[in-house]
Amino acid sequence: MKKVLTVAAAAGLMMLGACQPAAENTTAENMIDSQEANAAMYENMADEATNESTEAMFENAADASEAAADAVEDNAM
């Protein structure tokens, strides 16, 4: 009886050890975070722009990055 319990306990511990925790961040989440960071960077660059055309270019780039993040989120979920 003692051997059976020992074997059962060992098997249970091996099963627990085999369980892998779920990944914290998926590839899609990493891509979304990256695009959102790019958008924030472009918005900051637009704020620092010295003329209107440069500011508009950076704002367009920020909008494109946000759209890319939304597209990844829509396709991933």
The helix/strand class is mainly alpha
Question: What is the string of SSEs from the N terminus onward?
Answer: HHH
Q: Determine the fraction of residues in helical runs and give it as a percent range.
A: over 70%
Largest sheet: none
Shape from CA axes?
elongated
- Low-confidence blocks of residues: none
State the distance separating the first and last CA atoms: 50 Å
- The tally of strands reads 0
Rg over CA atoms, rounded to whole Å, is 25 Å
Describe the protein.
Helix content is 82%, strand content 0%. The protein starts with a helix and ends with a helix. With 77 residues, it is mostly helical.
Please supply descriptive tags for the structure shown above.
77 residues, mainly alpha
Provide a quick synopsis of the model.
The chain is mainly α and 77 residues long. It has three helices and no strands. It is 82% helix and 0% strand.
Write the layout of secondary structure elements.
Elements: H1 2-18, H2 27-47, H3 52-76
Helix pairs in contact: 2-3
